[in-house]
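Dear support,

Our group has been running a series of protein-ligand predictions, and this particular one with adenosine-5'-diphosphate is the one our PI (initials K.S.) wants archived with full inputs and outputs. We had some confusion internally about which version of the output was final, so please treat the block below as the authoritative record. The input we submitted was:
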Amino acid sequence: MKIIVQKFGGTSVSTQQRREMVADKVIDAIKKGYKPVVVVSAIGRKGDPYATDTLLSLIDNEKAYLEKREYDILMSCGEIISCVVMAEVLSKRGLKPRVLTGGQAGIITNDNFGNADILRIDTTKLINYINEGYVPVVAGFQGMTQSGEITTLGRGGSDITGTALGAALKAEFVEIYTDVDGIMTADPRIVDDAHLIETMSYNEVFQFADQGAKVIHPRAVEYAMKVNIPVYIKNTMSNSKGTLITASRESIGRIITGITHMSSRTQISVEYGEENQYADDVFDILAANKISIDLINVFPNYRVFTVDSKQEENVKKILDELKLKYTVVSNCSKIAVIGNGMRGIPGVMAKILKALKEKNIKVLQTADSHTTIWCLVKEEDTTNAIKALHEAFEL
Ligand code: ADP
Ligand code: MG
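Confirmed final output from the archive:
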């Protein structure tokens, strides 16, 4: 039985016209001899009536009167509604859909509400439905604990549902349908002439996703990579070939694969010296407070790192309590230049710095690994920096 998983994002199911296009993709797959399992996200984006953010806006998100468990029940509704609406379209088109919540689809998670991990997937029910000629339509982004509590998998988690189900069902491949033609050399909303990357390795895509390219959730890439299942990123609204993600090292010949970024970063420099007796403990104390830091540079007299801007006030409080001297640069953006091919190639960093300097963009900090070079810039420079680098590397 040639099972495939087709996951459709929020914009793909946002209007009746688009839902018809979704149905086209499902019917096409059936015509090709596949047994599709459909996964959907909540309908639309912030502002749309049943989008996740809209549901969250019904209650006070800031003060958190409710426990996380209750939030998950609220958030899980968007995908369930979307499933039923999508199922109706499939039914009208002559298919036999079967709507399933994440829990009903056999997705068992731990009880880390809001960001639960999948423990295992019991595919019995799904397989039975497929054998009976149904097209399962599964609510993305959610699961259920062993004891029946509803959980969610973290924002963007429908991608995880897609690849985790694909892996558990031993699907031929997984298709992630979205509103762009595939993974591009940069976010097409930022760089007009960004172009499609036809093939990528799991590792490269993971880097992209982990460094802020929203197009697929990093954990979704991990699930696929574990069992080596091919993943396509495609456009619901076009017939583009999309990006094929496999284990292969297709990066040969290209030094830089693409550019992505993460905004809302805050840079913090902590002075280091005899009067600052607790400076040594800073990293430990931040870790103990579950504040994750990155772009860490250690110098004899000071240390620099960045945090998510949401943590800025927390970090300041901690540093004040320790009576440390520090400086803060708010509203930064971390640009990541990614490419497996840059390993061992000299001059990449120099080229990056030159391209940014030519556009008068101040670089606040850099870091590098074998496959990524990061530059911290002011948030207002994000678009120009990405465009400049995209041009400099002729992507
Ligand atoms: P969905 O709702 O389908 O899951 P997302 O908004 O989560 O869609 O992801 C798709 C978006 O990712 C695109 O609209 C695009 O703006 C953004 N994106 C960011 N970086 C990239 C990239 N390198 N390639 C393609 N899309 C990207
Ligand atoms: Mg998404």
